[in-house]
């Protein structure tokens, strides 16, 4: 008996689902992406206890030289005068009284600089504050 | 002459779909920032509360941070902020008995921000430890306050 000639199946890699996989990855990165509102490079203090910064938090940045920059969490940080933190905070609280504020302060900054900012934030009735830190490692 | 029309099936080209998608992936991968978005939480006092109970200095745990990178607790001898073991034990011992015990951090205006964070971090570690042992009601934390210099003046410290 003569067997039928075996048909050769062409080898191929299915690429139809490629786009699906790619879009899945896109969605993942879109959700996890937080556009950095502040790109100031400074040495943060280190701590063991740290919790995640709430997405969209406002930023108050103090550089080593004492320059102050702020951001409402949507736009990039812009420099302001030390005495204008109050009006910035009041404006922020009028939109959302529960808005989180992140303090990104260089570790070499003297306390009186931070003290003035805290005073103004308190006056503006900011409630939720967070001190940005780096993870403390054993060498430190 | 009769031409036979061949019907062409309409279709949307999807071959480049994956390319577009991967382009977007690369964009989001590059813009994603994972680092340095963590910090210590702190709740600021609300000034509109007029019934703020005046705390006596003696009733609280009073931590003073000095300008030379040292701290002293309740009038004890100053220690370096690198040596937090004492503070941890001292605060833990008091707080595990009464979690409501107020803790006041009095920072010298000339002290480094770093020193304050070191002390606050230690207190938060104690808070975690106390919470783990179930001595802290849920959603409650230690009463930590960092008075501003104006407040300190008003309190007469």
Secondary-structure blueprint of this entry?
The complex is a heterodimer of chains A (140) and B (157).
Chain A: H1 18-32, E1 46-47, E2 51-52, E3 58-62, E4 68-71, E5 78-80, H2 85-95, E6 101-105, H3 111-123, E7 128-132, E8 134-135
Parallel strand pairs in A: 1-8, 3-6, 6-7
Antiparallel strand pairs in A: 3-4, 4-5
Helix pairs in contact in A: 2-3
Chain B: H1 17-31, E1 38-43, E2 61-65, E3 70-73, E4 79-80, H2 85-95, E5 103-107, H3 113-132, E6 144-145, H4 149-155
Parallel strand pairs in B: 2-5, 5-6
Antiparallel strand pairs in B: 2-3, 3-4
Structure description:
The complex is a heterodimer of chains A (140) and B (157). Chain A is α/β, with parallel strands linked by helices. Chain A has a domain of 90 residues: Nucleotidyltransferase, domain 5 (2-Layer Sandwich). In chain A, helix 2 runs parallel beside helix 3. The radius of gyration of chain A is 26 Å and the shape is elongated. The termini of chain A are far apart. Chain B has a domain of 95 residues. Chain B contains four helices and six strands, in the order H-E-E-E-E-H-E-H-E-H. In chain B, strand 5, helix 3 and strand 6 form a beta-alpha-beta unit. Chains A and B meet through helix 1, strand 1, strand 2, strand 6 and helix 3 of A and helix 1, strand 1 and helix 3 of B. Strand 2 of chain A pairs antiparallel with strand 1 of chain B, so a sheet runs across the interface.
